[in-house]
Amino acid sequence: MNNDDRWKQRFQNFSNAYQTLCRVLDRYEQNLEDEITKMALVQSFEFTFELAWNVMKDYLENEGYDQVKNSKQTIRTAFQAELISDAETWMGAIEKRNLASHAYNNVILNETIAFIHKEFFPIVKKLHEELKNLL
User: Where do the structural domains in the chain lie, given as residue ranges?
Assistant: First the structure.
């Protein structure tokens, strides 16, 4: 599979995860205290984040960038290539993803939910739109 096909296939997977995140976020907004929905939102965030940075990596490799071996390098390069405009929030998403396994802790769970709702969703929506326009 060539790089062009690879990033487009990965985009489809990312798009599916993004759509799931949208549905779970809508359900969360209908019942902010539902523990199961909160856990589903964290899980959806994890899937969506992983696919987001991987689709950025594949796209950047297709464009000739080669310093995109991990999530931090990919985010830095995506920012430099102007694929994303908020590298700081994307870097924060790495930290939140790493803490997501501790979602059993109510403080961490609530901080992660707030981050997903207020900070992550807007940047991942923007990335989705940007990549969709590049297809």
Answer: 3-134
d(CA 114, CA 4): 35
pLDDT, tens only, 46-91: 999 999 999 999 999 999 999 899 999 999 999 999 999 999 999 9
Whether 1 has a pLDDT exceeding 80, the answer reads: no
Answer whether CATH 3.40.50.300 is correct for domain 3-134.
Answer: no
Residues with Cβ < 8 Å from 41, sequence gap 6 or more? 21, 24, 25, 28, 113, 116
Amino acid, res. 21? L
Provide CB contacts within 8 A for 7, sequence distance 6+. Answer: 55, 58, 59, 61, 62
105 dihedral zone (left: phi>0; alpha: psi -120 to 50; beta) = beta
Q: How far is C-alpha 86 from the chain's CA centre?
A: 13
The three-class DSSP label of residue 35 is helix
Tokens for 24? 């779970």
Q: Give me the amino acid identity at 78.
A: A
